[in-house]
Amino acid sequence: MKRSYQELLITAMCAAVPVLVSFASCSNDAEYRMLKDSGMSGSALFERVAEYELAHAHHFESKLDLAQFYFLSGSYDKSLEYLVRAESVVRNVPRGKAGKSDAARLYGTRAELELLRGNYSDAVAYAQRAVKTDNALQYLYVAAQAHAAQENNDDALSLFDAAYAELPDHASPNDLRMYMYLLAENNRMAACKEILETYFEKAPYFASLGSFASSVYERCGDYQKAVLCAFLDYEYVSCFETVSDEMFLHNLDALQARLENDGTLAHCSDAIDFLRSYFTLQDMSCSDNDFFVSKYIDVVKKIKAAAASSNDVETLLLLETQFSRFPSYYWHIYSALQQLGASSAKEAVPILEKIIMLGNVSPYAARARHELGAMQGLTAAQSQKLLIRGEVDALLAQYAQTHDEQLLESIFALLELPDNEYELHALALVKQQCRPLNMEAALVQRKTAASPKLAERIQYILN
């Protein structure tokens, strides 16, 4: 449980938020209220709040606002610093509901931070203080996660039950994921199925979810959905590595034999045949045709047969929540739009860029890069050196942390390409970030072994 828990935690909570939050809580301090209501935003507001906090050593809310900003931006050490400062003056919060709410926000944010830091006992303690201070029941989820991390599964499940009964909409994807696994372990299958279906509606796919869902539906006696969910892991894994269609069909045959021996085949034989039709492109439907997996398979078969309609594309677009982590999903949308002649190059670009951002190891990423390169007038070989904006941003962010010059080589390869919008964006961004990231020495060194075009680009950056 501990290993899977850490994976859940990293996935759900460790992504830094790159924009400044708009501070929003109650304050009886007129001067601070005027500052927050001044219309300023972004870095200007942040700087003024930081100045105010320094000038007012006993002011609680400015410290808490800064702590939450640093927490949301992923600067956890700085967040802890300001949380400690805020807690040292928590006695200064105004009386009444507003003050209790601010104090609960302090304890709740500290609970979330301690959860990320692996201090699970502290996370539970601070979550309990948040709940006690202002009945902030949303922090029961934090306590539940902390108990689960320590394998106190009974306590974790009890807290998830209490939190979900009162505040189901406050459950994060990570909360839903942990909750449904705990429910399955306790054989509470009806409740598990409910949370699973909520997860499908609201949260992104993760590896092995299909297998888990298949097991849940089978244990609930919903054999059609159990069969159809078995397809999900096949489709997901095939996005990132070579998967044998024959092996999947062999496993499908084995499943059919098992269900026949169990006496349950009659409940799902058409679902098995429907899955086989994905590979043969046979025109057939599934009796459970309103299930999202059925809709996906049905539309993709039409796309592969070059027979999709605009209504089919609309159906596929409505499935983005369930398939947002599948590069194949976006490639099928792109293929359908190309078949229908329904999209311009400009409209297709965001779809192709989503494929690439889902992972460079995907074969669909190479296809998407090829299409984007062709739109820019690049050859097939040149297209594979293309980096989209998100990739350049990520490389520079990694360089800022490590100063590993090897990270810049992919950017240099992009800058050597014939003029295109991706190369020009990277050129402008590197020039902007050159001094803040202390890149000058690396650029000067690279220039000595650069091609004439790259040397020209580097000189432009350095000027």
Main sheet overview: none
Q: Helical content, roughly?
A: over 70%
Q: Average pLDDT value?
A: 90
Low-confidence stretches: 1-28
Portion of residues in beta strands equals under 5%
Radius of gyration: 26 Å
Order of helices and strands: HHHHHHHHHHHHHHHHHHHHHHHHHHH
So what's the overall shape?
flat
**SS-based class:** mainly alpha
* End-to-end gap: 54 Å
Number of helices: 27
Extended strand count? 0
Describe what you observe in this structure.
This protein has 463 residues and is an all-alpha fold. The protein has helices at residues 2-13, 30-36, 42-55, 60-72, 76-88, 97-117, 120-134, 140-149, 153-166, 173-185, 189-202, 209-219, 223-238, 245-262, 269-280, 292-304, 310-317, 320-323, 327-340, 345-357, 363-375, 380-383, 389-402, 409-415, 421-433, 440-447, 452-462. Helices cover 70% and strands 0% of the residues. The longest helix is centred in the N-terminal third of the chain and has 21 residues, at 97-117. The protein contains 27 helices and no strands. The radius of gyration is 26 Å and the shape is flat. Helix 13 packs parallel to helix 15, helix 23 (389-402) runs parallel beside helix 25 (421-433) and helix 25 crosses helix 27 (452-462).
